[in-house]
Amino acid sequence: LPSLTTIRGRCNLFVPVTPTPRPQPARSRRPETRRRSQRRSREERMDHAAEAQRTDLMTITRHALNEQGRHPESRGDFTILLSHIVLGCKFVASAVNKAGLAKLIGLAKLIGLAGETNVQGEEQKKLDVLSNEVFVKALVSSGRTCVLVSEENEAAIFVDAPLRGKYCVCFDPLDGSSNIDYGVSIGTIFGIYMIKDKDNATLEDVLQPGTDMIAAGYCMYGSSCTLVLSTGNGVNGFTLDPSRGEFILTHPNIKIPNKGKIYSVNEGNARNWDAPTAKCTQRDASFPKTAHRQNP
């Protein structure tokens, strides 16, 4: 029999075996373009964070106060009135956004017909009536209005003496409400006049020329809520920021270009245009001349 030493020598039982190192994958160097992309992403995140913390935003209230400061004799009545109009616009914007889901969330009062017609002979929708009530109550509660003229009311509304102010507001609470079911933009239109004698206001005080209007604007409800306002010193556009609940100045000093490339007109009435209007739109050759109305 072989000795134990011989067996150990043959089997190499006590010879340490050095493990073979595993090959490590080669580390690829990060491309420069990737570093630039990551650096740009960090900068964009920092910009967004800084934008979220901005405190120098020009809100519509701040804008109105700045305009008020230009008139030392002002008592702030117009600013208060404007704040109530803005409140009505916010309320209607919220109602319009919910109109598409009204059937699902149980707000049936927002959709459908109200069963009445307005002064233009148009069928009133429930959202028309709701918007009208919102603006009437907002304007009356401001304590700065004397007469209200709404497209949804046949007669003018004269505010009671305790809440009577010196302004007359003419408005359409929800223009284009027939487009609600189709998601097309709709809006509120308003114009503000001043009453000479608030204690003896009549309809004659309402029938003033447009040159006497002290402010006018509209609020459009669509993919965003935009309020465009003019107080006689330029035209400015404000966009509602849902996170802040404020209208922020986003379109300062709006102007129509001296020369444009498009025009907007209802060509459905083109056959009834007079010759100068048809010629201006270069549609004179599209319709028989006998179809044009003659100038009186």
TrEMBL record:
Catalyzed reactions: beta-D-fructose 1,6-bisphosphate + H2O = beta-D-fructose 6-phosphate + phosphate
Domain Fructose-1-6-bisphosphatase class I N-terminal: 58-252
Sorted UniProt keywords: Carbohydrate metabolism, Cytoplasm, Hydrolase
Basic and acidic residues bias locations: 29-51
Domain of life assignment: Eukaryota
GO cellular component, one term: cytosol
EC number: 3.1.3.11
One example GO MF annotation: fructose 1,6-bisphosphate 1-phosphatase activity
GO BP, one annotated term: gluconeogenesis
Segments for region (Disordered): 14-51
PANTHER family, per database record: FRUCTOSE-1,6-BISPHOSPHATASE-RELATED, FRUCTOSE-BISPHOSPHATASE
Family classification: Belongs to the FBPase class 1 family.
Protein name: fructose-bisphosphatase
